[in-house]
Amino acid sequence: MATRQLKLGAFLLHNGHHVAAWRHPQADSGRDPFALYKKLAQTAERACFDTVFFADSVALTSGVGGLEPLTLLSALAAVTEHIGLIGTATTTYNEPYHVARKFASLDRISGGRAGWNLVTSDNASEAANFGRSDHVAHGERYARAREFHQVVQGLWNSWEDDAVLNDKEKGIQFDADKLHALNHKGDHFSVAGPLNVSRSPQGQPVVVQAGGSEAGKNLAAETADVVFTAHPNLASAQAFYRDLKSRVVHAGRPADSLKIMPGLFPVVGRTQEEAQEKFQLLQDLVVPKDGLALLGRMIGNFDLSAYPLDEPLPELPLTDNGQQSRQKLLTQLAQGENLSIRELYLRIAGGRGHFTLIGTPELIADQIQLWFENEAADGFNVMPPYLPGGLEDFAELVVPELQKRGLFRRSYEGRTLRDNLGLALPKK
Amino acid sequence: MATRQLKLGAFLLHNGHHVAAWRHPQADSGRDPFALYKKLAQTAERACFDTVFFADSVALTSGVGGLEPLTLLSALAAVTEHIGLIGTATTTYNEPYHVARKFASLDRISGGRAGWNLVTSDNASEAANFGRSDHVAHGERYARAREFHQVVQGLWNSWEDDAVLNDKEKGIQFDADKLHALNHKGDHFSVAGPLNVSRSPQGQPVVVQAGGSEAGKNLAAETADVVFTAHPNLASAQAFYRDLKSRVVHAGRPADSLKIMPGLFPVVGRTQEEAQEKFQLLQDLVVPKDGLALLGRMIGNFDLSAYPLDEPLPELPLTDNGQQSRQKLLTQLAQGENLSIRELYLRIAGGRGHFTLIGTPELIADQIQLWFENEAADGFNVMPPYLPGGLEDFAELVVPELQKRGLFRRSYEGRTLRDNLGLALPKK
């Protein structure tokens, strides 16, 4: 396939992305969570999605407890064959040896389909599970993240592609000249290596990032294969896309070596009216407590439960955590349109500030194509509003429309995630 | 089944337990390691084994890199239905929140089949991957391990059995009174909780330990569900069994609430001669470099490569790490029988000091029965010499013999690992 192809991720939360998804008539009871994820991953794979994608938090931040991404993705590796498996692991409260090893192991188990979403942790409830009384400041988090990434990549390069010989005749298991210690000594880590997992068919797991700050964008420009990002409209996405791609080139990499995939919250109907009804059903199910908690988290981890729901948003101090830009956006939105707290949380109850499309497959495909062809996106991380129906609608109605237009594959191009994303094999 | 039943684990190393297993004609190339493990786990499950069991090290200690146990077990959870899934995670270089969460997640994915083998790390190559210049001293390791276990168990008790409601009608996801923070503050850890994985069908993952020191035995007596141990003969196993069971009672627990499972290295033949031939085939394949490395590791992490192979073992300083008792045993063995280094490593090339049986299914079943009925073992962790044949031989030849004698199940008793091991559901 010579023409540039769209990339699609399935960003899965247990009940779906809408804050009321768990109350949807289709919502799963949670008794056998793996059965649901297996069904979802297989649905996404049948539709040729590039990846499933799992966010993460090392604290109980919302709803009931879910599954941990690395264990979940490993189980999904055993029941899928083609789809990429991207999970989040924080650099703030982990050790690089463990992270390098677990993703390398997932990469080998899956035959080269693993991806690591590198994040930093910015909230106090995570800090409190790791012996800290407050979250780590932004600058320190990014300095640690950069060194963390360097160590992980160094460990992934422990074994050259042809280091393992298993020569039974000569009694030689591996070529010692092709196995490399790391001996890293830096400000945050001291790691000898080598890694005890040998090299995967795709060389290294794919690295995903989502930082929107200056430090985050620069780290991504230098080190990420994929960037996940949130934009409510074309202009915002274009500004981000052009900015980040120019940073990639400035870092000495081809612009196309980093794929930019904004989030997309789609509500699909066979008619516009049906799509609106599906959305309204969810809006009507929002529990005020859940809406308030979501808004509080998104605006910088504030507890808003003491404020009257139908009054305007109070003045809030500027947050130090990673959600500063989102805090500003929401504050401006509330002030600009004179929204009450309730009206504001209903605005974000679905897409949480991500690109939101409510309509027919044609309408949604039109907008995807517009972004894809106008320097706003290399693909999208699809955020189904509820599950399994929200993913099935996209897979069965929108994907065929994208395929008809020649924008999206009808079968997987390659064997590994890098093959399918069109990323080069890392040098070694 | 009213009579006491034997428990069996399948202790899997990539090529098998014999140090020359990787050179066996059947040995896997390592290109698709998961395909092999899937086949092995399914073989063990067909034979009604209680568990598969994976050891671990957070450094490259031998051979080529393998897979990480938590990712591997999660993938195996998706392709098995009954067998328990036990993996090792060290308390020395991990955070309790991560360990509690990953095993809880595996437990939910597998429908209540997870087990955590709690170990401490005693070697310098592991230390060097986590910013330490030398390994942690024995006493400090156990103090940390004890507190680590306390935190993990506290986190596993975050959610009461009926805390999750998912009451769509009333809009209530969980009963806040049945969700508990931990707020642990101790010498080594400060962890707020609650865990972000809700409770599994078996309450908590099974806890396995293998410490042979005073500190290790006391911790096991107070906290372990299963103990894995190494004994070359009946008398040694009986002494350990009686000692540990009395400690269990002293700790206020029923003796039967802790299952003792010594390792068993079986070489099975239809005749005694066939079994001996199978063993000799492996002995003849031992590469001196591999034999020396194994001996060096087992005797306390010494590099023996400079010593002449056919001379006696040199005097070695007493090791501070967890292998003191093994070091003494091997030194006495070498001196008592006047063994050369080569002869000594050939003695341990198979069972590494574990109970070793080379013979017919009847002979092996006789010995298992003898240990099981004479206060030496509640079951065995079976260590196949090579793979897949060594496991298949045990499953197809020895297990039916044990079943015929009424010692071992013909189908799984329950749904969870605790059910099958005959362990009570932890209170909560």
Describe the structure.
Two copies of one chain form a homodimer. The first copy, chain A, has helices at 33-46, 69-77, 96-109, 124-127, 138-156, 214-223, 234-250, 272-283, 288-298, 324-336, 341-348, 361-373, 389-404, 417-421; strands spanning 7-11, 51-54, 84-90, 114-119, 164-167, 172-174, 184-185, 190-191, 206-209, 226-229, 259-268, 355-359, 379-382. Chain A folds into two domains: 7-274 and 352-421, Alpha-Beta Barrel (TIM Barrel); 287-348, no CATH class. In chain A, 39% of the residues lie in helices and 14% in strands. Chain A has 14 helices and 13 strands. Chain A is of the alpha/beta class and 428 residues long. Chains A and B meet through helix 1, helix 2, helix 3 and strand 8 of A and helix 1, helix 2, helix 3 and strand 8 of B.
